[in-house]
Design brief:
Layout lengths: L1 H12 L4 H20 L4 H13 L4 H8 L4 H16 L6 H11 L11 H17 L1 H5 L1 H7 L4 H10 L14
Helix pairs in contact: 1-3, 2-3, 2-7, 3-6, 3-7, 5-6, 7-10
Protein name: HD domain-containing protein
InterPro entries: HD_domain (IPR006674)
Organism: Candidatus Enterocloster excrementipullorum
Length: 173
């Protein structure tokens, strides 16, 4: 029930912006699915999924303050917003800290320190690639340099209409 309540609060937070609502729900769905198929334990999966729900919490502020939603601006502005947003959910200290860390680093592709972080990067990229031609053009380099999970690579190649390395159908998981 916790994640559903956080989702409802995010939908209210983004009121009037269907694109932001749709984006975070798609990132959440990919994170949920990749986390499950990659065998994340329940605690790490919950942390990942909450981070996926709130990962773009700074976008409205960034649009207003900077005129854009560049990743570095989002990372810089997220922590204060998350502290306030998450207060009512009484998350354990370590879990809350990890969620904030993941959100404040979700556009940083270096120093990835856990599967939750890796999967959030992959889930967000999958959605961004589908929503933005800019992301879609660089997918092969990102697959090679960023993606690490079998499931994420499989989904990226499927999304881009690619087969395996030799054009073969994608392997089943």
């Amino acid at each position: 029930m916790l994640k559903e309540t956080i989702i409802a609060k995010m939908i209210d937070f983004y009121r009037g912006n269907a694109e932001d609502i749709s984006h975070f729900l798609k990132v959440y769905a990919f994170a949920h699915t990749i986390g499950g198929l990659e065998g994340l334990d329940a605690s790490a999966r919950d942390t990942l999924e909450i981070a996926a729900i709130v990962h773009d919490i700074a976008c409205p502020l960034c649009r207003e303050k900077y005129g854009n939603t560049h990743g570095k601006h989002q990372e810089e502005e997220s922590e204060a917003l998350l502290e306030e947003f998450l207060r009512e959910f009484a998350l354990a200290g370590e879990r809350k800290e990890r969620i904030i860390f993941l959100v404040t680093h979700h556009h940083t592709y270096s120093g990835v320190d856990g599967m939750d972080y890796q999967i959030l990067l992959e889930a967000d990229y999958l959605v961004n690639a589908a929503e933005s031609e800019k992301y879609g053009k660089s997918w092969k380099a990102v697959r090679e340099n960023v993606f690490r999970t079998k499931t994420g690579i499989r989904f990226l190649e499927a999304e881009m209409g690619a087969g395996g390395e030799n054009g073969d159908p994608l392997p089943r998981i």
